[in-house]
Structures are given as structure tokens and as C-alpha cells.
Amino acid sequence: MIEELKNQLKSLATDNILKYNQRLIPNTLPVYGVKIPLLRGLAKKVNQGDFRLFLKECDDSSFELQMLEGYVIASAKMPLEERLTYLKAFVLKIQDWAVCDGLVSSLKITKQYKDEMLNFIALFKDSKNEFEVRFVAVMLMCYYLEDTYVTTAYAWIQELYTKEYYAKMGIAWFIATLMIQYPDLAKAYLADSKHDPFIISKSISKIRESYRIPQQIKDEVLFYEK
């Protein structure tokens, strides 16, 4: 199965996408150069067949195969506990922001199992691994900015390890998104002197770039720049 998929990836690859991905994604894995929508289409085909065989054989020999593996784990029809077993092993080997964020965006199942997935996310909230931290931040941003969970999400964000670039950027993305729905909490984060100045600066940049935030707030947040 894997060899057949590799041949499909080769046939779908283009030089333009290869150069674009190599420039945008700092990844130690080889890159074919396949568009993300095409990878999602392949994941649907894998899910319609023996996806467990695919997950068993998948060798992570390329960026695209790892993305494909994440999409399958996130979307294949399987019991939650089985999914979490695959998911835990996968999160531990994430090496770049694109695989991390692609996985998170595909984990729509989280909306049905908020508490169970929050417990799963908790496994990584004390991690010092750059992309495990980013996984926590982006998961909280995508699925837990609502009244029932926002207090927990905000507390966890403040506890995350913030020494690595893509972890910091994930937290900044969370804070900027938090500003849309819970501006008082976001402002409290920006005003707290204990937080990393780089995260504050990037949060402010993302806030000012957002089309969903009023100009008054965009102007106000400049006062938090350190």
C-alpha cells in the first residue's frame, strides 16, 4: 500500500509546490511537492479502504506521508480510544508547524468529545518539546475558546514552555484569537510583565492584522508593546 501511495505522491508533485514547501516549512523530511487539497483527497481514499494497514505501514519517509498519516488518524472511522492511541504516538513525532496545524484542523472529532480530548491535550501541557507545546496551544485555540472551557484554556496557555520559536508563535496565535472573543483575558495576558516580550510582540502583530478585531482595540494594544 505504501509504495503505491508513494508513486501517487510522485505523480501529483509539482516543482512549484516543492520549492514553496521547502521555503516555508523547516522540515528534515524529504518533500515531494504535493498540494494540501490533493493530500486531503488521498486521505479520504485511504479512509475508505484498509486505513489500519496504511497506519501500520506508514514510514514517515516524506513530509507528505506524515501529513497524510495525520489526516487519516484525525478523520478515519474508529473508536475514540483507538484514535487517541494513534494520536499520542503521532504528536510525539511532529517536526514542523504544518504537520501540527494540519492535524489540529482535521481533528473535528474534538467537537464531539470535548472533555475526553481536553484530557488528552493535558498529556502534553507540561512538555518542553517545541511542537508538542504548539499542538496544545493550537488545539486550545481551535476548540476551547468558549465559556465552558476558556478559563482552563487560558490557565494552561500561561503555563506552557515558551523557549522555542514555533511554540511561541502558537501561543501568540492563541492570544490574538482570544482577543476576538474574550478581549479582557487577552488584554490581561498582554499586560502581564512575566510573559515573553516576543510572544507579546507577535500577539500584537497578529491582532493588528486581524479583520475580526475592531480598530479601537488594534490601536489600544500598541500600549502593551514591550
Question: Which terms would index this structure?
Answer:
226 residues; mainly alpha; globular
Low-confidence runs: none
Please report the distance between the alpha carbons of the first and last residues: 53 Å
The amount of helix comes to 55-70%
Average residue-wise pLDDT? 95
The strand count comes to 0
Major beta-sheet overview: none
- Gyration radius (Cα, Å) is 19 Å
Order of helices and strands, N to C?
Answer: HHHHHHHHHHHHHH
Overall shape: it is globular
Word description of this protein:
With 226 residues, the chain is an all-alpha fold. It contains 14 helices and no strands. The model has no long low-confidence stretch (mean pLDDT 95).
List the helices and strands and how they pair.
Layout: H1 2-12, H2 15-24, H3 36-48, H4 51-57, H5 63-75, H6 80-91, H7 97-106, H8 114-122, H9 130-143, H10 150-159, H11 165-181, H12 183-191, H13 197-209, H14 215-220
Helix pairs in contact: 3-5, 5-6, 5-7, 7-9, 8-9, 9-11, 11-12, 11-13
In short:
By secondary structure, the chain is mostly helical.
